[in-house]
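Incident log, support desk, overnight shift.

02:14 A customer reports that sequence design results differ from what the structure should imply. Their input is reproduced verbatim below. On-call engineer (initials T.W.) acknowledged and began investigating.
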């Protein structure tokens, strides 16, 4: 199985840069693991959307898997209380 390519959209990149350094490291590590397994055991498919999410402590990473192009689009990164708005 080939590695997936991870692409941040502009808003997700901005949200990532606003996180503190410790949170950035944890989130980056979790996103890096998605390259090998885009559907890890702790992920969840979001209802009514093509997106998936993983939990990283109090933060959520919302992403879309494009199997045709072996690509993961990071849609949103944020605190669990704000990310689904």
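02:41 Re-run completed on a clean worker. Output:
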């Amino acid at each position: 199985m080939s590695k997936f390519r991870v692409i941040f959209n502009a808003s997700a990149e901005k949200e990532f840069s606003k996180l503190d350094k410790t949170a950035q490291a944890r989130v980056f590590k979790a996103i890096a693991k998605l390259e090998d397994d885009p559907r890890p055991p702790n992920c969840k498919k979001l209802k009514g959307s093509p997106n998936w999410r993983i939990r990283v402590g109090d933060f959520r990473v919302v992403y879309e898997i494009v199997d045709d192009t072996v690509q993961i689009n990071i849609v949103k990164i944020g605190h669990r209380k704000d990310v689904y708005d």
